Amino acid sequence: MRRIILNEQRQIAPFNEPARDLRIQNKPLWLWQRDLLVAYTTEEREYSDWEIARRFEKEAVECLVHRDNIFFNEELIETFITEARNGRRPVRLAFRADDPAVATHVKPLTHSFFQQDDLLLADMWYLPQGLSQSLEAKPLVINTEARERGYYHVPPYMATEFGDLVYQLPRRVFVLIENWVHVFIADILLGVFTRGANVEDRIKEDWRYRLKILSRAMLQQKRVLSSDELVRVGNNVHIDPTAVIHGYTTIGDNVTIGAGVVIDNCIIGSNVTISQGCQLLLSVVGDGCFLPFRAALFMTTLMENTSVAQNTCLQLCVIGRDSFIGAGNTFTDFNILGGPLKTMNAKGELEPTNMLILGGCVGHHCRLSSGSIIYAARTIESDVVILANDERQFITKNVTYEQSDHLKYPQYTYPRLYPREDDT
Questions:
Q1: Does a cis peptide bond (omega within 30 degrees of 0) precede residue 100?
Q2: In this structure, is the dihedral angle defined by the CA atoms of residues 21, 349, 342 and 93, taken in order, positive or negative?
Q3: Which CATH architecture has domain 223-423?
Q4: Structure pTM?
Q5: How would you list the strands of the sheet with 256-257, edge to edge?
Q6: CB 231 within 8 A of CB 249
Q7: Per-residue DSSP letter, 113
Q8: What pLDDT score does 237 carry?
Q9: I need a surface site. Which of 160, 225, 408, 424 has the fewest CB within 10 A?
Q10: Angle in degrees, 0-180, between the axes of helices 194-205 and 207-220, rounded to the nearest 10
Q11: Where are the beta strands (DSSP E) in 178-299?
Q12: From 3.55.40, 1.10.287, 3.90.550, 2.60.40, which CATH number describes the 2-194 domain?
């Protein structure tokens, strides 16, 4: 089967980079897509839009067509291709508008869905006789099989208007990456959180798998949640005996984990150092990251080669590559005045995120000095330097490149690596 990739060149703020190049599950999105589809396709071709693709793709060959800004998991793509091939007709991926996972997490901030009656049509097609069939494609509705997971006992002031803090975690994952919030949703909520829920459900439903985990734990003389069935460790990894690591967690190669570290349901990349007393829960730490002592991550993404200094707390955040977060910074995640949090959409307008709690986002190649408090859902654009001072102690608004502190010092050279489209 031939794979046709339609490029989406629109940049995702505040990274100033197309979605395909952002890391999801510690892989560039384009690589994640390729690795999942390699079992179904034999060749791939890329085009900037549909018209150019139709002009060059005249052959009547089996094709899978999709945009390069979508995140999906193996369960979704296997279901879609299997059902499409069984039907032997051109189809387009679709979801019901009231599907809990799509309505709660995917539809907000997304403007590329095409709505047809009560269906949301996604940018993925199966065309058994080539691109000439694209206009004939009928919706193929996929049920994401969402399950409710989250926190059922929370302080009343956090749950009065919106209920408990719960998420809809699908077995079949699909996210359109059009906003930095979608990176958080794909990487954390529908990534590591959903992966953990899948393992938890399998343990409950499959007694053989449950027995396998228990026997491995007994053989290794470890806690059940720390056996190698649930904690996958790469090569040349040093883990201090006092560290506590629970599954489902994967750890790459050449990793050092210091004394007193606690890791629960995370993805840790390769060449990572996590020093004494750090705590990581439901987070993704990219290749080459460095966490000195007592850094804390909760439901947070660190892209590759980023450092988070001591006593910094990141909650429900997304941090870009090659950035530095100084000591003692705190990213808050809750609007104590109540109401849903908002963020800027692609049009530069404030739009509700449909989330009661949400941290901040730091772009690529940023430097944040110590001691700041960043309010919920605020963003810091790529290539920004923030120096500690009274004016920047509380960051209550989005910070753009033009507001970077390094611009006040002409003698200080700091290259701009990720300009906005209109600045290039």
A1: no
A2: negative
A3: 3 Solenoid (2.160)
A4: 0.95
A5: 238-239, 256-257, 273-274, 290-291, 307-308, 324-325, 367-368, 385-386
A6: yes
A7: P
A8: 96
A9: 424
A10: 100
A11: 231-233, 238-239, 244-246, 249-251, 256-257, 262-264, 267-268, 273-274, 279-281, 284-285, 290-291, 296-298
A12: 3.90.550
Q: Is the distance from CB of 286 to CB of 306 less than 8 angstroms?
A: yes
Q: pLDDT at position 392, please?
A: 83
The string of pLDDT tens digits covering residues 259-311 is 999 999 999 999 999 999 999 999 999 999 999 999 999 999 999 999 999 99
Q: Which of 37, 46, 51, 35 is nearest to 8 (CA)?
A: 46
- Taking 70 as the pLDDT cut, the residues of the chain under it are 152-164, 424
Tell me the C-alpha distance between 12 and 34, whole Å. 21
Tokens for 265, please give them.
Answer: 């349901």
Rounded to the nearest 5°, which phi and psi values hold at 132? -65, -20
92: which strand partners?
A: 125, 139
Three-state SS at 198: helix
Q: Which residues contact 277 (CB under 8 A, 6 or more apart)?
A: 258, 259, 260, 261, 293, 294
Please report where in the chains the tokens 């995702």 appear, as a residue.
Answer: 12
Torsional class of 242: left (φ above 0), alpha (ψ -120 to 50), beta (otherwise): alpha
Tokens 């408090």 belong to residue: 373
Task: Give the type of residue at 422.
Answer: D
Residue extents of the structural domains in the chain: 2-194, 223-423
What is the structure's pLDDT at 382? Answer: 98
Euclidean distance between CA atoms 147 and 143, whole angstroms: 12
Main-chain phi, psi angles of 36, to 5 degrees: -75, -30
**CA count, 13 A, side-chain hemisphere, 270:** 6
